[in-house]
Amino acid sequence: MKKTLVYWVLFVFTSCAHPYRLTNKEYKKQAKAFSKVLKEYPLHDSVNNAPYFAGTTNFSMRKPNFVVIHHTAQNSCDQTLKTFTLRRTQVSAHYVICRDGTVFHMLNDYLRAHHAGVSKWGNATDLNSMSIGIEVDNNGTEPFTDPQMSSLLQLLDRLKKAYNIPQANFVGHADVAPGRKVDPSRYFPWQTLAMSGFGYWYDTTRVSVAPDFNAVQALRVIGYNIKDTASAIQSYKIHFVPQDSTRSINEADRKILSDLEKKYQ
Predict the structure, then answer these.
(1) Is the pLDDT of residue 41 over 80?
(2) Contact by Cβ (8 Å): 83, 74
(3) Does CATH place domain 64-199 in 3.40.80.10?
(4) Model's pTM, two decimal places?
C-alpha cells in the first residue's frame, strides 16, 4: 500500500511539474482533428461532375522545401515557449533553440507553423506553407552562443538530408520579408552556415564586374523581393554585409552580388 501511494505521489508530482502538460494535450487534440479530417474525407475533391473518383497510386505527403531562421526577439527560451503555446498569439515555429543549445521541437515538420507571415523568396510566396521555421533564442542585440550554433548546424543537417532541401533555400526571416523583418539580425553568422552547405556565401577575390551588370536584378535572381528596392538592399546587407547599415549599392556590393548571382541561379 505504501509503495502504491509513493508511486501515485510521484506520478502527480511529475505530471504537475511538466510546464507544457496542458498545452501538449491541446497540441494532440488539434493534431487529431486534422487527422480526423483526412480520415473522414480521403477522397474530398473540388469537382462534382465526374462519374467517380479515380484515385492515383502515385503520391506522397507534401514536405518542406525551405528553412526560415529567426531570432526570438525575447529574453529567454521560457518566454518564447510560453508565447508559442498561447492560442491568442497566433504565432509559432517548428523548433526553438535555447542559449544553452537545448532544442525544443514544437510542431511536426509536415504541419504548417505560423512563423513567416507575409513573405516571398524568388517565385515562392506563403513561405509558411512550404517551410520549417526555426527560432533561435536571442533578443536581436547580442551575438549567438556557440552551443546554439552547434545545435542549429546539427538540426539543419538532419532537415536537409530528411527533406532534400536545396542549399539555396536556407534563408532568414529578413530575406523573405524585407522591410518588415530584420531577424535573425546582423549578429547571425551566415558565413558559418554557408560553409556547411546551408545557404551560399561569396568570394570576390577574382571577381570582375561586367559594365552592364544590374545589381538590383541580381538581388531578384538571388531571391529577394525587389518591389521595395531599398528594403531588399537592407535585407541583403543584414545577411551578407552586416557591418554596413546603408541602403545603397556600392562597388564592393556589386562584386558580392555578381558572385552570388552565379551561385543562386
Answers:
(1) no
(2) yes
(3) yes
(4) 0.88
